[in-house]
Structures are given as structure tokens and as C-alpha cells.
Amino acid sequence: MHAPRLHATPRVTSPYRLSRWLFLLTLLLLAGTVHADDFTVYSPHVIATQSEFELRGYHLGDGRANYHGGQAAEFSVAHAFTGWWKPELYLARYERAPGERSQWLGYEFENVFQLTEPGRYWADVGVLASYEHNTAGHGPDALEAGALIEKTQGRFDHIVNLIWEKHIGAGASRRYEFRYSYRGTYAVSSAFRPGIEAYGRPADHAYQAGPIVAGEWHVPDSTSNIEYRVGVLFGVNTAAPQHTWLAQVEYEFF
Q1: 25: part of which helix (H) or strand (E)?
Q2: For the residues of 107-123, what is the DSSP string, one character each?
Q3: Helix (H, G, I), strand (E, B) or coil at 19
Q4: Stretch 176-186: mean pLDDT
Q5: N or C, where is the chain less crowded by C-beta within 10 Å?
Q6: Top CATH class, 15-253
Q7: φ, ψ (nearest 5 deg) of residue 178
Q8: What is the DSSP letter of 55?
Q9: Distance CA 175, CA 199 (A)
Q10: What local confidence, expressed as pLDDT, does residue 69 receive?
Q11: Domain residues of the chain, as ranges?
Q12: Which whole number is the average pLDDT over 47-51?
């Protein structure tokens, strides 16, 4: 998650450009989806020329057989080529499903498109679009896409993701799966932003919510920052894991 930045010279988004991006958003919502177990809330903000190394993962704390021992981790690299497009490549994706052995999955190419200038409208809007390639035996590939919405008021920051997923290739289902997520934080300081996250996966009848802490430290005498996020989600209903422990660390530089 990125804290809102102040831009010295804000760009002006023309009505033509905004309509073009809204058209792109419509196409993506019709065509793709997002990974159901991706416990991340994406910000629509993109900072030009910023590069990132990110490691994140989760662990399920639930003694039931269909959840016990489940965990996953991902490592990715990203670079914002413009002020509105940030592609990200997941180079390593590890997963241990409940009752199964650990395995390395395939790769994922993910993109965040910032559609509006931060603070120009009532809320900031962006799009997430990605292609997930699974190696042989790990299921079909997937397309993912959805809307990213962020609203900042004073020290409060709210982000909502509305995301769809569609499996493609051999053995793929015709169904579109939907998930939504929310993060709300209060900035005590840049390094300490407590808050809550909530996730809903209607296709799995799974709903979770719980406290998180996030923050960012500036590396002295550099243009680099280190971001972190830790938290725990509680199952709202019996179809969700009782506890899901989350962790994320990110190194950003220009």
C-alpha cells in the first residue's frame, strides 16, 4: 500500500483521456478477473520511474483439515514506466495447499493503471489487470481485472477493490468469480498506520476481516523507502479460515 504523495505540478486529465480510460475499464471488467487467495488491497496510485521489490505471503491458522497448513508466498519486481502504468512480474510463487506438499507455481504479469489524478475527483480510480500462467499440473491459467478505488480524508485512507477472475485454457470453467476487498487506515505517522482489512469471496462463501498495521520508512541519504504490512484476518463465517496471518515487505527506489 502506498501513502498518498503530493505532486508539485499536477497533470491535467483531459475529458478525452478520461473517457478513453473508462472505456478500457469497461473492457477489462468484461474480460478478466483476480486471484481469490490474493490477500492484498491494491492502491490505484502510480509513481513514475519508481521500482519495487516485494515479498508477501499468508499462513492459515485453522485446525480443520480443509485449511490446516495452508500457506503461500510471492516475490515480485515492478517498475512504473509512466505516471499511469506500473507493470509487475511475479518471479516466484510458492504455495502449500492444506493436506498437500509444497509446490512452486507459475508466473504472473500484473498491471496497475492509474486513471485519475490523486485528489482531482471525489475518489482516485485505477484498474488492475493481470495474466497468471500456472505450470503443468497446477490448474488452468487465469485472467484477472478489476476496479481500484481510493479515498483519502485527512489522516484516514480508504481503498476498495472490486475484482473478477476467469480461468482460461484446458480444463477452465466458464464461470466468472468475483471478490471484493477493503482497507481502512489511520496515519499516526508515515511509519505507523493501523487499520482494518476485509475480504469477501462470494463464490467460496468466505468472508474475513481483521486488524492490520502498515507503514513506510525512508532510507536515509537515499531515494528509497521500505514499506511493511502485517495483520491477521478472522473468519466471519464457517466457510472462511478461522485465522489468516498476513505479512508483506517492499523496497522502493528511484
Answers
A1: helix 15-31
A2: EEEEEEEE-S-TTTSSS
A3: helix
A4: 95
A5: C
A6: mainly beta
A7: -125, 145
A8: E
A9: 20
A10: 86
A11: 15-253
A12: 97
